[in-house]
Amino acid sequence: MADKVKRLQELNAELENVFEYSFEGILLTDADGTIMKLNNVSASFMKLQKEEAIGKNVRDLEKKGIFSPSAVGKVIEYGKSVELVQSAIGGRYVYVRAKPIFDENGKINRIVSFTRDLSEIMLLKKQLEEMEDELNKYRRNFLEPIQIKGISSRSEKMKETLNHVHKLAGVNSDVLLLGETGVGKSEIARVIHQLSSRKGKPFYMINCAALPESLIEVELFGYKGGMFTGGDPGGKKGLFEASDGGTLFLDEIGELPLHLQAKLLHVIQERQFRPVGGTEQLKLDVRIITATNRNLREMVQSGLFREDLYHRINIFPIVIPALRNRKEDILDLAHQFLQEFNKFYHKQITFSPKVLEKFLSYSWEGNVRELKNVIERLVVLSDYTVVQESDLPEYIQEASSAPSDLTLKEILEEVEQSIILKEYEKENSSYKVAKKLGISQTAAARKIKKYLE
Ligand SMILES: Nc1ncnc2c1ncn2[C@@H]1O[C@H](COP(=O)(O)OP(=O)(O)OP(=O)(O)O)[C@@H](O)[C@H]1O
User: Fold this and answer.
1) CB proximity list for 289: less than 8 A, separation 6 or greater
2) Which residue from 99, 194, 248, 323 could staple onto 364, CB 3.0 to 4.6 Å apart?
3) Interface pTM (ipTM) of the complex?
4) Fold of 149-319
5) Which residues have CB under 8 Å from 42's CB, separation 6+?
């Protein structure tokens, strides 16, 4: 008998331990909802000591705002198990499952309830929703085109370029435009002029590769009367003088002969120049935009471009990305040119989906200019309304059908990368990033590592 009692006592102690070590709050009441037993977790949800809670009725506690609604109360009301989310004192949310225990006559004898903290899950959910909102915002910005003076783009790279354009246009500094042939450097130069305070003033451009050396000098600086037999006896204004108050765009600056580079440096530094054959210096108020598709640094190294001029014009460089690196823009540009040429040639041409696919996979070494020219040719030469793949030039038909390099997954990854790195730059701690973005520290650390590499 003594053994039995001892074993029962041991068993009881073990059950007490299980009761106490549970992660869930456990609460036992009688059939009226009066608390008979509870563990510390359950008491802590009510912000009460265990001893204070024992003997209290759940309905009274509900009235005092300790929790609401009472799951035990609902079990008494409905006579069966209930599961519900309860708001507990201190702004917490808890998930409660309460079960009736029946006696041999089928009447409720006890009610046991199990409670789990939901606040953390709710908090994570809230953070996730906020992050989702943020992601959607980035996704929208990412995919939606921005438009500046007739140039629009959906590409992140090009949007960055256009942002620089916008910022630099407002200040009066000279600008160097860098990018492959046909990317739109002249277009950007025009935009800079139009966005600047000089917009009502002259805008001239000259292609330094298109004219022989002697002519460029005259074109740029003009000449004094009587300088050239057959020349205008009154002399001729150069482009610098003609652009006074406005903007002069010097395209293909890398092709400017060395002795004219020296003259240009003088103009840029002193803001004055001397016409060919002239003796006096004329003052100038001209914004100078230069552009090149050459690698000027290499040209400096091989002695083809003056280093001092290079440093002087390279203060505000703007890089315009190649079309193959902003494939998101190809279809919009194709559509824009198609409309323009349809209107111009009185046609109603459209493109088959296969044609558009080829546009996306082709590498467009000649960039926007090449795309524009191809579309003009297709509009002019097409006999049918819908242009088919076979109507395309062979070199475009042969382009490998690799899909556009921006899949949804990549877009999302880019968005995630920008958010993660931005937060990491601010917080400099994977713990803080994790907390801010509502993800686990392990996930944050893994992503930071992935995107930093
Ligand atoms: N974003 C754009 N939207 C519409 N048309 C564009 C755009 N970018 C370029 N183009 C058109 O593409 C053609 C080539 O552009 P542009 O002459 O500006 O290129 P570029 O970089 O100056 O070329 P190059 O290096 O040969 O001087 C032009 O007909 C221009 O109107």
Assistant:
1) 174, 175, 176, 177, 189, 192, 193, 247, 248, 249, 250
2) 323
3) 0.98
4) Rossmann fold (3.40.50)
5) 25, 26, 27, 53, 115
In angstroms, the CA 289 to CA 272 distance is 16
Q: Is the distance from the beta carbon of residue 186 to the nearest atom of ligand 1 less than 6 Å?
A: yes
What pLDDT score does 230 carry? 61
Q: For all residues of the chain together, what is the average pLDDT? A: 87
Residues of the chain with CATH 3.30.450.20: 2-117
Tell me the C-alpha to C-alpha distance, in Å, between residue 187 and each of 150, 193, 209.
Answer: 9, 10, 18
* Smallest CA separation from ligand 1 atom 7, residue: 184
Q: How many angstroms separate the CA atoms of 292 and 275, rounded?
A: 25
Q: How many residues make up the chain in this entry?
A: 453
Q: Which amino acid belongs to residue 285?
A: D
Q: What 8-state DSSP symbol labels residue 68?
A: E
Q: Answer yes or no: are the C-beta atoms of 145 and 154 closer than 8 Å.
A: yes
Residue owning tokens 């041409």 = 349
Q: Could you please report the per-residue DSSP string of 231-261? A: S-TT-EE-HHHHTTTSEEEEESGGGS-HHHH
CATH class of 2-117: alpha beta
Q: How many C-beta neighbours within 10 Å does residue 221 have?
A: 24
Do residues 284 and 272 touch, judged by C-beta distance below 8 A?
A: yes
Report residue 346: phi and psi, to 5°: 50, 50
Question: How high is the pLDDT of residue 140?
Answer: 61
Residue 368 Cβ < 6 Å to ligand 1: yes
Given a cut of 50, the residues of the chain with pLDDT beneath it are: 402-404
Distance CA 291, CA 157 (A): 19
Residue found by looking up tokens 């926007």 in the block: 368
Q: Are 187 and 201 in contact (CB under 8 A)?
A: no
Select from 187, 294, 318, 371 the residue to mutate for testing ligand 1; criterion: most ligand atoms less than 8 Å from CB.
187
**Residue 182 CB–ligand 1 contact under 6 Å:** yes
Residue nearest to atom 18 of ligand 1 (CA): 184
By C-alpha distance, which of 284, 364, 355 is closest to 323? 364
Beta strand pairing call for 175-178 and 287-292: parallel
Give me the phi and psi of 363, to 5 degrees please: -90, -10
Distance, CA of 246 to CA of 285 (rounded, Å): 7
Task: Provide the strand spans (E) within 20-104.
Answer: 25-30, 35-38, 67-68, 82-88, 92-102
Return the residue whose CA atom lies nearest to atom 12 of ligand 1: 369
Where exactly does CATH 1.10.8.60 map onto the chain?
323-397
CATH topology classification for 323-397: Helicase, Ruva Protein; domain 3 (1.10.8)
